[in-house]
Each structure stands twice: as structure tokens, then as C-alpha cells.
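CORE FACILITY INTAKE
Project code: CF-77B
Contact: R.S. (postdoc)
Sample description: multi-component assembly, four entities in total
Requested service: structural model of the whole complex
Turnaround: standard
Below are the sequence entries exactly as provided by the requester. Do not edit them.
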Amino acid sequence: MARTLEQIAELSGVSRSTVSRVVNDDPRVSEATREHVRDVVRREGYRPNLAARGLASGTTNVIAAVMPGAVDNILSDPFFVSLLHGLAVAADERDHFVMLSLGDTSFRHTVDEIARQGVVAGIVFVAGQVDDPLLEPLLASQTPMVSIGRSDDDRVSYVDVDNRGSAQQITSHLLRLGHRRVATIAGPNFAPAAADRLAGYRAAIEAFGLRVDETLIYESDFSEAGGRVGMRALLEHRPDAVFAASDRMAAGALNEIRAAGLQIPDDIALAGFDDMPLAAEMEPPLTTVRQRPERLGEAAVALLLDMIATPASSPRRTILPTDLIVRASCGSRQDQKER
Amino acid sequence: MARTLEQIAELSGVSRSTVSRVVNDDPRVSEATREHVRDVVRREGYRPNLAARGLASGTTNVIAAVMPGAVDNILSDPFFVSLLHGLAVAADERDHFVMLSLGDTSFRHTVDEIARQGVVAGIVFVAGQVDDPLLEPLLASQTPMVSIGRSDDDRVSYVDVDNRGSAQQITSHLLRLGHRRVATIAGPNFAPAAADRLAGYRAAIEAFGLRVDETLIYESDFSEAGGRVGMRALLEHRPDAVFAASDRMAAGALNEIRAAGLQIPDDIALAGFDDMPLAAEMEPPLTTVRQRPERLGEAAVALLLDMIATPASSPRRTILPTDLIVRASCGSRQDQKER
DNA sequence: CAATAGAGTGGGAGCGCTCCCAGATGATTG
DNA sequence: CAATCATCTGGGAGCGCTCCCACTCTATTG
């Protein structure tokens, strides 16, 4: 059924080697031969056998996406889903496959296997937390790896968005609108992104010449429930604005604010992070930071393939920009902008 | 670095063949030899090279998950995410890998590649619609395949939940509670699950001795927005209960009902389908049909590996049960049950 | 006790490809 | 015009495994 290199060679009257060169875009083939072989390849629908190629060359065109941590958290989050999408698209565009390795430590088995032999050309690693226990075995495997999200480990290459800068920007925006008691519902401390956003929040307040009021900081998780809990706690301290570290948290906060009989943005301004579809549909629409997780995925693949193509000892980093999306929830109507 | 079969053979003083037998659990090895070789394998951390194994045996332990259709729709839906999770877990448990092929027709390329050569042992196919255009090439590839969700094509093996029966059950429940003008917001007609749920709805009404009122049926998409639109249209026809074909639609319907100043369940009872986490948290909590997409994923892997192990000409089907989850939104308090 | 059957083991062949070296051909040089 | 070179092509070797056949050895049979 499926043709082999040898058969294509015979059909086009050249040698195995020449067909191989054509298929792999090796320049040392005359234009005429190349064209002819290409025709035959097309006509016969020939595709090289991946296993054979992998065996002979010692590499593959498979990228592993390792997403550890509690799966419920991971996958219910649209962020990861978009990320995965970006990975898949980018990999496809570059003739690579994405192999999935989801889940918690029970997947240790698979991770081992992925890491060990030449199964995959590289790994995209989505760390669940700072110093994820999977990091070490993955690094030890010597397989090229890109982490999604910053890592303190200086052996790790990563792609990330500018969490700190974005958080500072949106917090500054709230301050510039006249809010003074700007609170934040932070993400879990063990997540680098959460720590960075909190740091950005602090930086904005200090840059504005105010002192950070620790009672206006509540650490929670990224979920909607987490946002509700955080908001409930913060309401006691009478903030006039809240920066939630994720849109889902902002949604929870919104419900809580409303339950307290307060108006958004008049009584309390609200801002989120992510710009999930949900954000624009909230009532009022949510001011937030737009990040494009698909871009992260694409960038990760690009970086990874680059690292594979031209190995370097030092890790590489890519930081993606974000956009501040101003909507009604922060109270930045024209008249308010001026006050 | 990585050892080969041959090296393990030498280290344990037996032949390549014997090690291969041990690794592959071939019974034709004496217990003593087996133990000894196992020890060496463990000690050396030996893992067979997948590419070599694939080349020699002509098969792999990779399963492709092909999820076509508009990705935004697919991946924003927790259903697919859970499904993917189930696939990944089940595959891992059975020493298989999941290769991801997301996306629309731009992925045709990858699908081609997956289908053609012996890259994957089998395919789990998530059809976006009836007669998905990807179905034909996938079938033509002769690769064992399991579809998630029913297919009319009698060459297709699939796993599915009992959409029709579940919809009939929940609709009957509404009827038994005393509701007579039971409407439904159906899913898109091209989705088999949507068609089945609608059929179940019709069946329940007829089984109850009523006539189906076509004005009480609104076809929409599975999204929350779709639910809102559908509910808005249905409100004109004064239903006293609504069965939404997904929880997300139910959420949209709920907002719309509330916006119309009506009470749930007193003015209009509401029921959904899926039992997403959201359902229990709605106000009031949503009566719905629980399906476990992870189970679908597991079942698909189980069926697929079964088909690979013992090929049969006729397609196989697995239908998974669902649970009716009664909560407050349908108005089934004790006193109402009796009226 | 020769004939036969099983159980356990070893090694050759080959999966389809890439890599490397060698050869053929024609163009370029002093 | 012989010597050198670049360009293109062909074929051997081998990647690490599985599969098959052959072989040895012990246990069983009439």
C-alpha cells in the first residue's frame, strides 16, 4: 500500500539517495531531477515512514507537551486550552506533531518515557508551580525544553508574557482614574505568574507615590470561587477599586460586590487579567489585560525548534507583550478620566 | 547513553532475542532467565527505542486524537477538555501516547500524514458534525478508528452516551412534575448529539400522550449566547418548562428568564444537559443530565485498543449511561412532586 | 530405548530510512 | 590538453528492534 523510498526511486529511475535528498530538500540535486522526483512523489502520494526516519536519523518531529499539576485546575482553565491550541497549530505548520502528556504524578511513567529515549525532539513544559517536581527529571533527560511561564532556574528556557509590567500598567490605570484604595486579589503564591502580577501591583502603587496597604491584598486561587472569597474578605477594608489577577476571579468578585449591594464601577472599580471571552460579556464589561495564550504556544514551538536547530548552552527567553483593554468596569468614562 | 537491546543482552549474558522476549512479555522464557534479565533492564534503566520498534513491528503505541471543526468552539467547551483528559489518562495507563491533531481543515495536512503511514496505531476521531469531511480520508487510511459520538456511517465504530434516552428521561421528569408546555432549546441540527437529544425530547412528550408543539422547539448552538437567543424566542410562546440541550445554553436561558422578570422554577422550570461544574453553582442549581466525558475518552481508548488487538470487520459500539441529576431548577420540591 | 514432542534459546534477515564515501560527469584552470 | 575542481548521483552500512527459523536440551511416549 504505502510506497517506500526505494519504490519511488525505482519509479522515477533514480537512486534511493536521490529521492531522499529531494524529500529532505537537500540542495545537491539538479533541478531537473528534483522536479521529476517531486512529480512521482506527488503522484504516488508518498510519505516517508516516520519510524524509519527516526531510527536512521536519531531524531523525530514530535514535540511533547507536558502539562502536570492537577488536571481539573489545568484543563478547566481556558488559558491552557488556548495554549494547547497554539502549540498544535504552530507544530503543525512546522511539520511537527504534538504528543500530549497531561496530568499529575501518575504520569510520571509517561514523562520518564518521553524524556528518556529519542521519542521526542523537544518538550514544552507547562509548570504547575515554582520548582515543579517534574522539572528536574525533564532537565536531566537532556532533551531540549521550553517552559511556558517564567522559571527561576537558570537552566530553563521559557516563554512568558510580561505579567509584572502588565499588572503594573493596569493598576496604574486604576490609580490614574482617581482610585486610591486599590486592592488586589492575587493568585496563588506558588505560581510565578501570580507572584509577578502581585509584584506589578505593588510597583504601580509605589510608583504612584502611595504606600502599599497589606490589608488590601488577598491571596487566593485563580478560580471564580477564589475571586468571591477574596472579594468578600476585601470588602471589609473598603477598597474603591480591585485588580483581580484573573478574569475568572474578577467574575467571582463581581458577583460578591453585587451581592453586597454595591455598584460597579461607581462604588468599586474592577479590573481583571486574561481577557477571556467572558470579560467582554460581563455586566459591566471588564477592564482587563489581554494575553493571547495561543501566541505563547506558538512562541514556545518556535523557540523550541530554534533550540533544536542551533543548540546553545545558555537558555533563551521570549517575553510576549500584552494589551491593556479598557472597558466600563474600571469607571473610565470620559468624564471620569478627567477628574 | 541510552542502552540498546543488544547491550542489555550482553550485560545479562543472553541473546538479543531473549531480552526482546522478556521486554515484550513473551511466555517462552524460563522464569530464572526472565527474572535475571528484568533485573538488568531495571538496573540499566533500559527503554526500548520506539522508532526501532515501530519500524520492525510495523506498529506503534501512539494514538491520534483528531478533533476537527472550529477550534474555538471545540476547546472552549469543557466537554472536549474532559474528553481529552480521559483519553490521555487511559492511553497512559495502557502504555500508549496521545498525539494531538486539533483544528480545522488547515490541519488536513497533518491528518493526511497521520492517516497514511504507520505513524499511529489508531485514531480517536471527534467529529464536529454529521458527515464530517475528515471522516472519509480517515476511513480510507484503513487505520483503526473510534469516533466519539454516534455516526450514521456503518463503517464507523464509536462510543457515545445515550443522548436520546437521557433527553427523554429528563423531559419526562419535567412532564411528571406537572409541566405541560415543555419547550426545548436544541443544539445545532448537524450535531448528532443535538439531534438525538431533540429526538428524546419528542419521544418523551409523545410517550406522555401529548402532542409536540413545534413552536416550543428552538434550534440554536450549544453556547451560552445560543441559549439566550433561544430562550428569548421561546418566551413568546409561554413555556412552563425548558429543556436546554447543554448546561451552557441553560445558563444563557436562565439569564434571559431572569431578565424577563420571571422566577425559576416557579414561573418556568429549567433543565440542562452535561452537569458541568457550573450547573451545581447556578442560582437555582440546575437539574441536568450528568455525562462524564472522561469516561467517553477512556471507553474510546479501550475500544480502539481492542479493535487493534483483535480486528474484526464489523464496527463496534459502546454506549455509556448517564445520570439524571435533579436539583432545584426544575421545581421538584416535595410538594410539587405531588401536584 | 529409539522416536517424538515440547520448552527454551540464539542468530539471520530485514523493516525504511539517513549518512557517508566513492564514482561519474562536465566545467575550469595553468 | 592534462590536471583539478565542483556538481551530481549511486550504493553500502547501519540505526535498534521484531520476526522467523533452526538448534539444543530435557521430558515423554509406545
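Facility notes:
- Residues 4-6, 16-17, 20, 24, 48-49, 51-58 of chain A lie near DNA strand C (CB under 10 Å from a C1').
- The longest strand of chain A covers residues 62-67.
Invoice: internal transfer
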